[in-house]
Prior knowledge:
166 residues, mainly alpha
Amino acid sequence: MEAILPNAAETIPMLVAFIVLLIVLGKFGWPLLDGILVKRETAIRDDLKAAEEARIEAQKALEEYKKQLAEARAEANKIVAEAKKAGENVKADIQAKAQQEAAEMIEKAHNAIEAEKKAAVAELQGSVADLSVAVAAKFIGTDLSDEEHRAMIKRYVEEAGSFNAN
């Protein structure tokens, strides 16, 4: 039993040392340790609060980013739609101008053909008149004056019909 129980002479100094150590630690150690634990708890609580605020701020920034992205997409779609509309307008203008130019060219061609036709008819009338006068002169056997030629041509045209047929 002596091995288990301490010696009485040693027990009292150990008990006194323990009580002194307990008083010193209670007066100086525990408040210091408690202050460190309170500071640690406060720091952890503040860090958690800051992390939550940062998460909320990040969420707001993400929502703002998504909103700006949606607005940018809408603006891009609007610009594309306006560009398509402008392209269609330009295409319609070009087609209208091309059709107008084609119509003008066709009109000019018709006018040129009509002028050529009238010139050909006039030349043909002159040739027929000269030929008619020559044939008439041969047929009659006499040479006719200019007034007689004109009267004969006029009568021939009235009898045969007009050369201005369309």
